[in-house]
Amino acid sequence: MSDKIYDLMVIGGGPGGYSAAIAAAKEGASVLLFEGEHIGGTCLNVGCIPTKYLLDKAAAIEKVRDLVGKKIFRESGLYSFQKIQSGREAVVKKLVGGVEYLLKANKVDVVRGSASVKEAKKAECGGVCYEAENIIIATGSVPAAVPIPGVEHTINSTQALALEKLPKKLVVIGGGVIGMELASAFCSYGSEVTVIEVMPELYPAEGRKSVGYLQKELKKQGIRILCDTKVTAIEKEGASCQVSYEGAETGRIEADTVLMATGRKPNLTGIDTEKLGLELTPRKEIKVNEYMQTNIPGIYAIGDVIGGFQLAHAAYAEGEAAVAHILGRKEPVDLEALPRCIYTKPAFAATGISAEKAEEMGIRTAVGTFAYSGNGMALAEGEDGMVTVVMDLEKKTTLGVQIVGACGPEMIAFASLAVKEKLTLEQWEKLVVAHPSLSEMIKEAALDCFGKSIHGAVR
């Protein structure tokens, strides 16, 4: 038995877990954090950050190619995939080290090991029992695979990030965020990429016009996208694989690497849900309320293990809500204006609801758009794209924003605030945005909802 009883134990050191631990410690709570693998979890080590490093270098390569095509650069030159991979490792190491420093500086005790939770207020690790008044489960998720004959010949996203050699022909099973981001990166590096997605279209929850534009641009980049199609078998033939598929299209395709990117599932390792009596959803996710409470008093859950958006910044917000409740404050999590980003080339970013969703809810909408081709900064930077703003036709308030194009994930923070505060047409009209900047396009698209855009196409 531990000789110290903590105010809080956090199970899992990913973004939600470590940020919740630090937030609680900053308010004077005694905190113990368990992490069985790497501080920073999937996001810092084998997810968000390393993927974005690969995508950033891919974008640079595409930029140089574009300038060569315009004869501004004479030649595109060569690049080293090995150097890119070593650079990725260096960035991950630096960020993980930074988080470890923050945990130590904020006096969060860290146990390097996987915790087992079988009853409230207690956790066991390495034969030692630890106690706390409250527990936050932040064990994240693991890659999910579909039962396809020959699935053993595939790699997951973690293995894809660690490839030492660039695939010549890459087949990606799954057109979700992970699949499309890696497809975009490897396409820019020179791989011949095919994405096979079982759903009739990519990202069905997002605005159809924006997604259609994104898909068109990805295909233009060189990615073959087969929607409404499923993989039926993967057969190994020498050093390569034959991938059979059927649906909207039927056939076989050769690949030297097959990436399984069919989403992620909750990681409940070490959490004895039956003995605890922990209530789960039909998808085997931990069920919580708006304060991140489970059905067991003193046990909270956040992040991928509860399903939902499965985004690091969602986990941050959920962790803040859980810590606030533990400390006696009722501050429910609010993800209504949560940014949703896909870091492909071009990037996609959205917040709030689409016009289609608004109409399902019985809201009459006004939809405005603005093309990158009408923006001075976008033209100077050689970028194409489109911004869409959805407003309530009667109330003239902002409901949602979608951006397809460069810096979309950066601009969406500005747009998220507009959605959260339900910015009105009058407020958009009075808002002054820096010129030249890409952010001007959000205001122009908002004004276009009611035919008031200054620089947009005349309707």
TrEMBL record:
Cellular location(s): Cytoplasm
Keywords in alphabetical order: Cytoplasm, Disulfide bond, FAD, Flavoprotein, NAD, Nucleotide-binding, Oxidoreductase, Redox-active center
Record-level GO BP terms: 2-oxoglutarate metabolic process
Pfam families for this protein: Pyr_redox_2, Pyr_redox_dim
Binding note for cofactor: Binds 1 FAD per subunit.
Xref: Gene3D superfamilies: 3.30.390.30, FAD/NAD(P)-binding domain (3.50.50.60)
Residues where FAD binds: 52, 139-141, 304
Main location: cytoplasm
Reactions catalysed, as given in the entry: N(6)-[(R)-dihydrolipoyl]-L-lysyl-[protein] + NAD(+) = N(6)-[(R)-lipoyl]-L-lysyl-[protein] + NADH + H(+)
InterPro entries assigned to the protein according to its UniProt record, in alphabetical order: Class-I_Pyr_Nuc-Dis_Oxidored, FAD/NAD-bd_sf, FAD/NAD-binding_dom, FAD/NAD-linked_Rdtase_dimer_sf, Lipoamide_DH, Pyr_nuc-diS_OxRdtase, Pyr_nucl-diS_OxRdtase_dimer, Pyr_OxRdtase_I_AS
EC number: 1.8.1.4
Residues binding NAD(+), per UniProt: 174-181, 197, 263
Keyword check for ATP-binding: no
Required cofactor(s): FAD
Family (UniProt): Belongs to the class-I pyridine nucleotide-disulfide oxidoreductase family.
Protein name, per record: Dihydrolipoyl dehydrogenase
